[in-house]
Amino acid sequence: MSLRVLMSIGALAAAISASVAAQVPSTPAKALSTAKVSASPARTPEGQPDLQGVWSFAILTPLERPDDLAGKATLTDQEAAEYARRKKDRENKDSRDGSGTDADVGKAYNDAWWDFGTKASNQTSLIIDPPNGKLPALTAEGQRRKMGWAASFLTGVPNGPEDRTLAERCILGFNSGPPMLPSAYNNNVRIVQTKDQVAILNEMVHDTRIVPLDGRPHGTIRQWTGDSRGHWEGNTLVVDTINFTNSGTGVYAIALTTDENLHLVERFTRRDAHTLTYEFTVTDPTIWTKPWTASVPMTLSNEPIFEYACHEGNRGMVGILAGARADEAAAKNKSK
Hints:
Layout: H1 10-15, E1 53-56, H2 77-91, E2 127-129, H3 140-155, E3 188-193, E4 197-202, E5 208-212, E6 227-233, E7 236-242, H4 252-255, E8 263-270, E9 275-283, E10 292-300, H5 315-335
Antiparallel strand pairs: 1-3, 1-10, 2-10, 3-4, 4-5, 6-7, 7-8, 8-9, 9-10
């Protein structure tokens, strides 16, 4: 974010940024259907398209298409600018009512701490398939799991850290993915590549995925971020990921509705010097009635990656569990 106040992981950022020439984008990203791809993208010494740099995916475009834009897949530049203006007003945390006239600390953090983005893309939703821009229906099992989680998380007493979300436990961030989706802040990712590997470092909870490009088969060990393998299709890096755990992903918006059968395919395409299109397809027959695809425009940033100082076993988790035990003790004493 423009006013990120977190501590820099200077050594790591310096080590993996030497080959990056950061530039600031001057125009909003176009929707995938209309964006042009550079015929001659910058290339690494190995001849691969060069995807390296710090990319911001802070964008005001919603995941799902708003009802008042039903049937409208894209916006003009003027419409996108007006949509962004209205949404920024609504998201302003220094205003209780979103009007910008009643300044106050909104929800414990004033507006300087948030980074929802400043622009909207020409897409009316990040979801581009189904064509209506909406998430597909959940299966019966998907509905059962979502309702069960809501009942447990919102009203249940946590017996241990496993009863809280991965983001709350600082294992994965709520926008770190995979797949990556914009959220409240730390919407930044650094890509570093060699001939045989690509490293994807998320600013949120400082997680790094190492994606082999050498054709090796998938492993068999389930992991929080799955098991990724990559290959090139023309100028597009395709990352295929399976073997997730059954605890969801690092995306709060969909973590509650994925499981170990999730199959994720991500596509990274450099559109021009400033823009990268990140497209992904989610397939999970246990949870969703059909696959769905989203397209997220990313822009090259001139800011470094900062540390998100959140770690497993943090004091917040200790406080949550200690509070739950205190509530139980108080209830027991009252019953006596």
